[in-house]
From TrEMBL:
Organism: Roseibium algae
PANTHER family from the UniProt entry: RRNA METHYLTRANSFERASE 3, RRNA METHYLTRANSFERASE 3, MITOCHONDRIAL
Similarity field: Belongs to the class IV-like SAM-binding methyltransferase superfamily. RNA methyltransferase TrmH family.
Matches recorded under InterPro entries: Alpha/beta_knot_MTases, MRM3-like_sub_bind, Ribosomal_eL30-like_sf, rRNA_Methyltransferase, SpoU_MeTrfase, SpoU_subst-bd, tRNA_m1G_MTases_N
Domain RNA 2-O ribose methyltransferase substrate binding: residue ranges: 44-120
Entry keyword annotation includes Methyltransferase: yes
GO terms, biological process: methylation
Name under which the protein is recorded: RNA methyltransferase
GO molecular function annotation: methyltransferase activity
Keyword Flavoprotein applies: no
Lineage of the species this protein comes from: Bacteria, Pseudomonadati, Pseudomonadota, Alphaproteobacteria, Hyphomicrobiales
Length: 279
């Protein structure tokens, strides 16, 4: 084990004032390059709320960068102490370095680097599920993050990313989850594997489709539900649609061709979970 690895495991505090510090460069790369996130298995989440969500949910923290304001903030100090005790390196940085790391003029007071988590498709247990949302080649990180947040809000079980999807650990996606990323299991799979799952699913399989013949308010949605959503531009692929028992449609009256993917997912999820949601 290298010296830096040893000190990281024990938890350490490091002051960084230079933009050219290797850790600053590493974090910049994680913010801007999917390849670097994939190779390292790490990602960046901005903000104190996300840091406390991640730490409380037991995610591995690699670095926690604290700007000047965070060093005066009790919650940030507590988060840093917990993360450090679990082996994270605490970085004390100035506002300029925080800006450089996150490529933002007004950076958050805390920025964390965490280990990614993706579950295996085999871990899906329909018997223990309410609703899994499957996304066919979702492209927009904001849509993906918003869907993860909504899945969390309605008490659905998790999200399955099917085929070539946007990176759930991209900064924009993580930001849009508002912390729900740390509470919602994510699975990645291929279209072939997904079709097998859909065909053997024991409960309701409902795919949203602009050509669906079933009004989304009519099925009884007996759980476990597999809700399947199409790609932003191309909609749901034909093979995917054929693997699903019911094609549901959300009525529209104006001139819009379709609803935004995250909006259509939210409307469907609230209908599916309606009986389980009380104020
Ligand atoms: N041009 C695409 C098409 O032909 O399907 C539009 C895709 S739409 C932006 C993205 C996804 O949101 C669709 O594939 C579907 O899953 C869902 N969606 C959007 N509006 C819908 C509606 N009115 N009824 C059912 N699903 C809808």
């Amino acid at each position: 084990m290298s010296q830096s690895e040893k000190s990281r495991r024990m938890g350490a505090v490091k002051q960084i004032t230079s933009h050219s510090n290797p850790i600053v460069k590493e974090i910049k790369g994680l913010v801007s390059q999917r390849k670097q996130r994939t190779q390292s298995g790490l990602f960046v989440a901005e903000g104190l709320k996300l840091a406390t969500d991640a730490i409380e949910a037991g995610w591995e923290v690699r670095y926690l960068a604290l700007g000047p304001e965070a060093r005066e903030n009790r919650i940030a100090q507590k988060a840093a102490a917990t993360a450090k005790a679990k082996g994270a390196m605490i970085l004390e940085v100035n506002t300029a370095v925080m800006s450089a790391m996150t490529r933002k003029d007004n950076p958050q007071m805390v920025v964390g680097v965490y280990e990614q988590r993706l579950q295996d498709i085999e871990s899906i247990d329909p018997a223990a599920a309410t609703v899994w949302v499957a996304l066919d080649r979702v492209r927009d990180p904001g849509n993906l993050g918003t869907i993860i947040r909504t899945v969390d809000a309605v008490g659905a079980t998790g999200v399955i990313l099917v085929g070539d999807c946007t990176d759930p650990f991209a900064v924009e996606a993580v930001r849009a989850t508002m912390g729900s990323l740390f509470h919602v299991p994510l699975v990645k799979t291929t279209e072939e594997t997904f079709k097998k799952i859909a065909q053997s699913w024991p409960g309701t399989v409902a795919a949203t489709h602009l050509k669906g013949s079933v009004d989304y308010r009519t099925p009884d949605y007996s759980e476990p539900v597999l809700l399947v959503m199409g790609n932003e531009q191309k909609g749901l692929g034909d093979d995917m649609a054929n693997a699903c028992k019911t094609l549901i449609r959300i009525p529209q009256v104006g001139e819009a061709d379709s609803l935004n993917l995250a909006v259509a997912t939210g409307i469907s999820l609230y209908e599916i979970r309606r009986k389980n949601l009380d104020l």
